[in-house]
Design brief:
Length: about 500
Amino acid sequence: APRLFPLLPALLLLLALPASSASNFPTFTAGAGSPDFSFNHPFKTSSDSPIQGWSTRGSAVATTRRSSGADVLQLTPAFASRAGFAYATRRVEGNYFEGYVDFEINKGKRSPVHADGLAFWFLDGEGMAAMESGGMFGLKAPFRGLAIVVDTYSNSRKKRHPYVYAWVNDGTQEFNDAADGDGVEIAPGCHIDPDVETRMYVKLENGYLQVAFSLGHGHYRWFTCFQGPVRLPFNSGGYFALSADTGHFFSEHLIFQVQMKATPQASTEKESEVQVDGYEEPAPAPPPPPRAKKSREEMAREMAENDRFFHPPQKTAAELDAAKERLYMKGFEKHRRSVEDDIDQGEDEIPPSEFDLKIRDLSKALEDRVIAGANHPGTQKKANDAVQSASQALTASYSHKTSIVNAQRGLAAAREAAGEIEKWSGALRSEMVHLENRLVVLKQIAEDLRAAHESLVDDVSSVTSDVKRHAENHLSHRTAEFVFVLLSQVLVALLILYLRRMQKSNKYGRIV
């Protein structure tokens, strides 16, 4: 019993937590938003846009996901150096909105890491029609308004990515890609997991921003990423927008749906002042019934459960060893990723060789060929003819019911042309895979040639040293032979001179 008294403050805190967090919890996390600012599967189209009420720029395109058959907005494909941008064509009257965005970021098979990220924007309306896609998470800098950034690539190596933060800019702040949000974020951000369907909740009310996330299917569990006061550089409302871009590394950025609701401040204040005839204020709700008193057994059981929560049982030696092993493997995996990032950064800093330049040229030529195949005159002509025929049939259907048959024929021709384009794309993909395999073989041959060259250089160096050593030995032998011959000749000359003197001395001796 004495151990229960220190737990009372903690219990009171636990009882107070639900009441304090309920006001901050996301309120509009499901359902439909305003049709002017929202879209979901199946997409509603218009005469000038594949998504009604939205306009696209750059690589952004409305397409169908093969795995599910659902309509999605693809901001960027899994290719390098792409940027896509989409914005709602209707202006938000006021700076009050709430809603959610479903998205997914999938790493490309040929990219070792995710890059570069996507962003949700609330932008000033001035010059919105002339806005272009660019390298600031799919938008061309500078901008005026609010940005909620999902940065998937760590340039500063200081934060865990993907990292989410918010930035308010009045058009004067420059974009620093290497800072990863340092110096501009309105509050410390959070980390989310990639490669899963994610729902992001955004609410701006009375100059206060809230951002929360729910990962995976169902979206039953939420966590608050950050919240804080913001001061927008405009007061007359803005435009919703979405964007993404890729760099040397790349990911596929998909938007499944956008559900946003906007309520101007002025209309909210006026609604509170409107009096409707015949309307009576409802009676206040009765107070909640008092809580039933718990028995001592129930209180003792709850205290025991809380005691187990705050004082968990000690782990065994085997469990501690398993926990240490998990921590070691986690640290090893983190170190491995850091080394891979350093290697990738080092490869970026090494100047490309002639072989790498040839491979890059082949890749560029292959990409151009894919684009040319998609823009093949035959398929393009068939598609254009089919679309024109369908458009004419649909226009005539307003005046005569029998034109529906012509519209269906035009749509069938359009589907046939789409099938032709898909067949061309499949053939080009197969050729791309074949060329990639050939590039791998060429890389292996180049590595073998480099190894053979290094071995040949070593052999030449060894032969050169042997030749020098033999030449030095041969020179020393020739020198000895020359000295021996010279000494022999000198001895012979001295012997001849000695004999002559002996003859002369004998000659004079006989005369005497």
